[in-house]
Structures are given as C-alpha cells and as structure tokens.
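Duplicate of earlier report; Adenylyl-sulfate kinase input re-posted below.
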Amino acid sequence: MHRQAGGSDREPGRRTAPVFAPGPDGLAHLELVLNGAYPFPGFMGREDAESIEVRGRLLDGRPWPVPVTLEVPEGLAGEDRLILTDPEGAPLAELAVGEHWKGSEGDEAAPVVHRLAGDVTMSRPAMYGALRELRVTPAEVRAQRELDPTAHQPLLAVVTDRPLHHRALHQIRAEADALGRDGGRAEVLVIIDAPLEDEGAASAVLAAEPLLPPRSVFVVATLPRSGRRGSGPFGGEWTERDAALAAHVAAAYGATHMLLEAGGRGPEVERVMALRPPLTVLDPEPWRYDSGEELWKPFTSVDPGRARREPSDDEVENELAHGRELPSWFTPARVGAELARLRPARTERGLTLLFTGLSGSGKSTIARGVCDGIRRAGRPVTLLDGDVVRRMLSKGLTFSREDRELNIRRIGYVASEINRHGGVAVCAPIAPYEAGRAEVRAMVEEFGDFFLVHVATPLEVCEARDRKGLYAEARAGRIPDFTGISGPYEEPVDADLVVDTVDADPAESVAAVMAALREGGWLPDPTST
Ligand SMILES: Nc1ncnc2c1ncn2[C@@H]1O[C@H](COP(=O)(O)OS(=O)(=O)O)[C@@H](OP(=O)(O)O)[C@H]1O
Ligand SMILES: Nc1ncnc2c1ncn2[C@@H]1O[C@H](COP(=O)(O)OP(=O)(O)O)[C@@H](O)[C@H]1O
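Output:
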C-alpha cells in the first residue's frame, strides 16, 4: 500500500516522507484542491467534516455539501508528512498533516477508518489518467473568458456524466437563449464528469459539440461520488449533495448558472438550492418528443397522448448490447455512432461465462457442450475447466480457502485477458466463495461481460453420482475441506442463470445456457443470418 519514497534529497537531514496513493475519491478531491476548484488548501479535519454532515456548512459558516477527507491505512496514521501519488506512484503533492482522526463508517461494527487532514502543496502537475488535455483548470477557463471582450454574457455550466441526447440539447439551447442578455445568449461550458482512470462517456458527450451553441467550451473534471459510477457510459445516480458539489466546481470555472444532466431524473432542484450553492441551479423545462409533429417541444405544448417516452438507461444499454441503432428521434446520429463505438454489440465484446457448483454438479459436462455451441456460432472460445486448471495453471495449490481464492483469481486473470481481445472464456471451477466470484466479475468487467451460471444440483444428487468416488472418501473423513461435506459452498445470489440438472439431461442443460446467451445477444441470432 505504501513505501518509502526513494531519493528525495531536497532537504538534507530531513526524514523522507512515506508515499501514499489515495483511493479514487481521495484522488478526485486532491485534483480539485490542486486545480483550485475548491476554495480551501487541503483535506478537512474532523470538526469541519462533522459540521458539514450536520448543517451543510464548514465551521466558519461557508456552505459546503460534502466532507473533503483523505482516508489512509492505519500504518500511515502517525505520519506528519505524506507524499501523495497517482496510482502509478508518481508524486502529485505533499500533505503537511495537521490532524489525524478516526471514526467508523456507519454502524459500530464497521471497521475504524483513519483519516489525515492538512494542507497540500503540488509537487508536479498530474500526468496520469485519461483525457489530460481536457482537464483544464478553473483559472485557465476564467482567464480565457476575461481575454474575450465580448464575454459579458452569463456562463451556463452543463455538468454531465452521460451523453447529451436530443432532449438535453434542446434544454441547453433553450436555457442559453433565455439567460442571454441584450438579445444575445448565454455561453455554455460543458463540464464532463468522467472517471480519472478511463474516458467514461466523454467522447460521446464531445460528439454533441456541433449541436450546442457556437463557442461552447468543454472541460473534463472528476467529481468524487463514492459508489455512484456504473460500468456503462450512462452515468450514475446524483444525490443533491453531489449536485451541490458540482455547482461549487462549476462556479469556480466562472459559471453563473448550472444545469445538471442526469437523464431527466436528477435530484430536486429546490433541495439542491437549499444547500446554498454559489450559483443558480436551473430546473429546465421538460422537453418531450411530439410523435405527431415529429418534433421536440417544451412539455406544456405537447399533447400528452402524443408525447413519446424516452428510453431508460437500461433500454439504451440493451439496444447497444444487441447492436441496434438508437432511434434517431432520441439520439443525434453522431452521438449514437460514438456510443456504439464505446459499447460495441455483445457479439463483439469479450465474455466470461463462469459455471459454479458442487463437485459432480455438471459444470464440466455443460461447459464442454456450451463451448462446442459457441464455437459453432462462430466465436473464439477457451475452456478453463476446474480439473484442467488445477493440473496446469494452479498446479500445487491445495483446497484451503486461501488457495481456492488464488485459483479463482488466476482463472479470472486469464479470462480477462481473453476478453480483452474480444474472446469468450468459459470457466468451470467450483468457486465456492462469493468473494472470489465477485473478484472475477470485477476483473472481467474491465474488458468484457460476465455471466454467472449456477449449476444448482443438490448435494444428495452429486453425492449419489459420485463420479470420482471423492464423496465417499470425504464422508469417510479422508478428504479435509471437501466442498459440501467438510468445506463450505456459498450459494450465489447473483447468478444470471440457474441450471437444474435433476430433471434435465445434459443436452437440455446445455440448450438452456445457449438460449440464455442467444437471448442476451452474446451470440448471433441464427434466424437473422
Ligand atoms: N477438497 C476438495 N474439495 C472440492 N473438490 C476437490 C477437493 N479435493 C479434490 N477435489 C477435486 O478438485 C476439483 C475442484 O477443483 P476446483 O479448482 O474447481 O475447486 S475450487 O474452485 O478451487 O474450489 C473437483 O472437481 P469437479 O468434480 O470437477 O468439481 C474435485 O474433483
Ligand atoms: N443435466 C445434466 N447436466 C450435466 N451433467 C449431468 C446432467 N444430468 C446428469 N449429469 C451427469 O452428472 C455428472 C456431472 O459431472 P461433471 O460434469 O464432471 O461435474 P462437475 O464438473 O461439476 O464436477 C456427469 O456424469 C453427467 O453425465
């Protein structure tokens, strides 16, 4: 987690500070402190953080919506200086620790969290992460506008973590017109909230540039919102505190007004304004598509019977997953094309199929049949069978919990590499622990899709089959940690498909999996070829 920074001889005789790479939220806060988007010089102490939680204000009375804190491992809690680095270990800033404080997150049983507060000083500008050239500082944007003598119009910030479809674009143009002074229109600054480590929906947002008022400016920022981001390019849920934080950042860029694009389902603007952001958060008039006139119009002028419902984020994801074009009344063609590039059809995305179940449940038998089917459907496929993996990749590992977790991690790694190149990996280990399966899911979803099949054959049936005589041995006490007998099997609660092998023969079980893959769009539909 941390190590001593080598070779820092700037101040001879002074002990070298340990280095620490903050987690995603800590890093996002750090970037906003360093680029001047936040009006304070570092991470907050306990009193400020508690004051924000209780009354939405810093101790000195300034409204502020979220604590800006830095979690550190316990081993760093006693330090008085820290070098904060990016995830690759390059120094970003030095933290002069003013306070160490700890607390538990939520209930008493939760582990103690250690935090350090204090001012940060930039070591060198950040280089890591995606879209660096678009991560322009607030001061740069303000200076650019000051150079322009015609820039006397209000500045409307549009903060978005998702693509701008027709509705949002109409709303933005209408608001920019309404806010304009002297017959002009407000200028537009699009703040794309993208993760630090990848581009998120940024390229799809940028694709809408020609559809926004001329001279609209685009910047990328990462707003910290723990646990919000989904894996798709459609953004996540915004709370009113998230929205208020976005408003503070937008104001730092010089914005006078903000419109949050949250897919039409953002937090109530009144509740955001109650947190006293430093600019006006707009509650734009809803726009609807009038299917009679084939036009987008303000809600009030559309006959409710003719207002077409917008597809939900899930529906958009589903259309893209099946390789279908998004409807042109909903998405501008250029945005749709970029989304199709960001989210290729499932037939082209990597896929990991993980079969989990007791020994003898039928994993290998079904996995073999499914591999044949996938190959026949024209996709490259690799089978990572439990027994075979144990003879090769995981030779020498035992059946302790630790070794089983290592086994599944290795399988997950190989599967994710197969997925990175668009291939299908079919894995058939017992994978008895929820944590191990979740780890594989996370590894795989970086590059492809994950599909969990629970081969839910009851223990009695597996034991009666006892193909390898192992159950008898285990019952006789000769195999320790035998899954289902002397070792645990945690039933999955997140299986995408549960297969019954009691009332079905192998061919039927294979067919059930193949049907699910076809239905989900991972295999070409044979009727369409
Ligand atoms: N203690 C114990 N518990 C469970 N299974 C045992 C054990 N010892 C050996 N075997 C044989 O190893 C096969 C399971 O290996 P896996 O790599 O799939 O297991 S795990 O995912 O690491 O839990 C499993 O194969 P399958 O029957 O194909 O599941 C068994 O044949
Ligand atoms: N519907 C079914 N699907 C898979 N296997 C089945 C089914 N019905 C009976 N079986 C039998 O159950 C046994 C499963 O063994 P195997 O596939 O090696 O399981 P595992 O890999 O889970 O240990 C095989 O002998 C297979 O013929």
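Residues 357, 359-366, 428, 465, 467, 501, 504-506, 509 surround adenosine-5'-diphosphate (ligand 2) (CB under 6 Å).

Merging into the original ticket.
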